[in-house]
User: Fold this.
Amino acid sequence: MISTTLIRIIAGIGIVVVAAILVMRRKNKAA
Assistant:
């Protein structure tokens, strides 16, 4: 069984990665 804490950590990292990608895309569009 996968612990809920591990799922939360993975989800948190995923959200951070997606946010970083969105920021980079916005900067690229602005540039």
Notes: DSSP finds one helix and no strands in the chain. The chain has a mean pLDDT of 91.
